[in-house]
Amino acid sequence: MHESAAERGTYPPPVYAGPAASTPVPPSSLLWWAAAMALLGPVLGVLWWFASPGGGLYGDRSEAETWLNRDLVLGGLELVAGIVVGWLLTNRLDRPGAWQRVVTAVAGSMLGSVLAVAVGQGLGVLFSGGESEFPFVLRSLGVAAIWPAATALVVFLASLLGLLLMKPKQ
User: Which domain holds residue 32?
Assistant: First the structure.
């Protein structure tokens, strides 16, 4: 006897379901990814200011030796954020609209990275009194690109490994 789709527990039946690649992503999902990345930026900015030498907790901002360390702290924070966001995105690559989600997350992480730098520098100016000879600023501007680049690289490598390790259909 022929078993129907309703008896198997799948709805809608496969005959009515469109291809996964052409199924649109709900705009709320894309807004969530963009907003989450943009809101994570100020959090990273506060962490950068607290954890950097010459920031909120320790160090002297007037020493030139601390400038590289300050930039490396932000770079490390952004690298961790990029790897985590990329990992979260790779868990959703098999769902419809994966590339829209990745593009939105990378664009949101660009905005978040700029906000992290702005918040960290703003806290540096606010708590140094604005009269410092050596302000708390990001000297290596390329560090701001680490978060979006790490996100895109993790997704690319996961996609590439997924294609390489995929078993061919017989």
Answer: 25-163
Answer whether residue 141 is part of any domain: yes
Residue 4 domain-assigned (yes or no)? no
Residue 80 domain-assigned?
yes
Q: Is the pTM of this model over 0.90?
A: no
Tens of pLDDT, residues 113-152: 999 999 999 998 888 766 667 788 888 999 999 999 999 9
Longest distance between any two alpha carbons in the chain, whole Å: 85
State how far the Cα of 70 lies from the Cα of 79, in Å rounded to an integer: 14
Residue 150 domain-assigned (yes or no): yes
Question: How many Å apart are CA 89 and CA 7, to the nearest integer?
Answer: 34
How many independent structural domains does the chain possess? 1
Residues 6+ apart with CB under 8 A from 64: 134
Q: Residue 48: which region, alpha, beta or left (left: phi > 0; alpha: psi -120 to 50)?
A: alpha
Cα separation, 131 vs 56, in Å, equals 16
